[in-house]
Amino acid sequence: MTLQMTVSPDFPPAYIAGWYIFNTWLQRQSGLPIHLTLYDSFAAQRAVLAQGGIDLIYANPYDAAFLVRECGFVTLAAPCNRADEVVLAGTQTGPVNTIEDLAAGTVIARTDDPDVNLMGMMLLEPAALHAGNTTAITVDSYPLVAKQLLQGHAGIGFFLEEAFDSLSALVRGQLRELVRSRISVIRHVLLAGPGVRAQQVEHLTTLLLAMDQDDRGQAVLESMNLSGWEAHSQEDTEFMIDLMDTLDTQVLPG
Amino acid sequence: MDGYQTRIRYFDGHSRDALIREHEVPFPDGRLIVSRTDTCGIITHCNQAFVEMSGYPERELIGQPHSILRHPDMPRAAFQDLWETVQAGRKWHGHVKNLRKDGSCYWVLATVIPNVRHGRIAGYTSVRRKPARSRIHESIALYARLREAENP
Ligand SMILES: Cc1cc2nc3c(=O)[nH]c(=O)nc-3n(C[C@H](O)[C@H](O)[C@H](O)COP(=O)(O)O)c2cc1C
Q1: To which H or E segment does residue B95 belong?
Q2: B134 interaction partners in chain A (CB closer than 8 Å)
Q3: Which domains does chain A have, with CATH numbers?
Q4: B4-150: what CATH class?
Q5: 3-state DSSP assignment of residue B120
Q6: Domain locations in chain B?
Q7: pTM (predicted TM-score)
Q8: ipTM of the complex
Q9: Is the CB of residue A117 less than 8 Å from the CB of residue A123?
Q10: pLDDT tens for residues A225-252?
Q11: Which of A25, A93, B54, B98 lies 20 to 30 Å from A66, alpha-carbon distance?
């Protein structure tokens, strides 16, 4: 049986080729047939996941919650030193200097990245903002989030930290960073579905954890902009899911 | 030093003397204060933000009951509600004023959830985030009323 692999659509487009190289590497090392398919939206990927069509996934933490709790996925590994953090920004010329300056009616520019949006909404709470007193404009990429801000269509933008830091100097110079998360435990994880046998899970994990120890493996990691894989126990993943579950609580004025 | 000495009385009857100061330490931006307990409320894990905000080194926290942070301004009813909710397997959230080791305080918006593993509650996790000032003011008024009802 060929294992179907996919990657969370929020992965930076510059490293897509790297995931194909990784697919070849993993296939050779494990001796298992593996086929990689990429989807350009979370919705398209979820439709395939719902049909049970995915065996291996580099999952957004938000999707990992559903896959582990509802679909019996298990954790293979997590990328080293890479947590999902967010930046909330306004513009240099705008009136907002701190999150607390934002008022009801604020327009949010964001992508469809579910964990960034979850953390972003949580970071708006000090201004007593929530889904009920804000509106959101959803665009396809982080540069477009910046564009919405600079064109004055939105008062605050939600960015994945990495994406914010890789905006051009010209664009960044016009944005005002208001808050940067330091949560540390919310991260992408590589998961295996219930169709992957326990023995294969163990074998794949062993290969991944040792991947940074030879030149060939290191080159493949570099092409994905990763430094290596580290152990992430099922309990680590369960804890991350519990933590995100607490952030999902909408606390409305009593 | 400003402040006053008081005796904090716990639900199980024991008590301790503590220094209470007015000073409020602001919640650190962008961070979460996280701790986990066993099913009895004994601290099993805490993150760096928890250590920094509580003012206790980690070794003085692990193995202690979570009530080590209990502030005398908190009404008993809040924690009773917390425990009833999470023991029933549900999520609890509320504004909590916590007591630091040095007697000053910090306000959090806490969400506590049961950690369900293999269908059973294995412990609890509390994640605290920065609350809105307006909600802290509401809580101060509400908790004062509740305390008055508890100690007429
Ligand atoms: C996961 C978890 C986190 C808790 N965090 C706090 C806290 O930050 N501050 C606090 O005063 N009580 C906290 N509690 C409640 C305490 O266990 C305790 O009920 C409370 O401090 C009141 O003390 P008493 O019940 O001994 O009177 C927490 C309980 C749980 C299960």
Answers
A1: strand B92-99
A2: 128
A3: 3-83+185-250 (3.40.190.10), 86-180 (3.40.190.10)
A4: alpha beta
A5: strand
A6: 4-150
A7: 0.92
A8: 0.91
A9: no
A10: 999 999 999 999 999 999 999 998 766 5
A11: A25
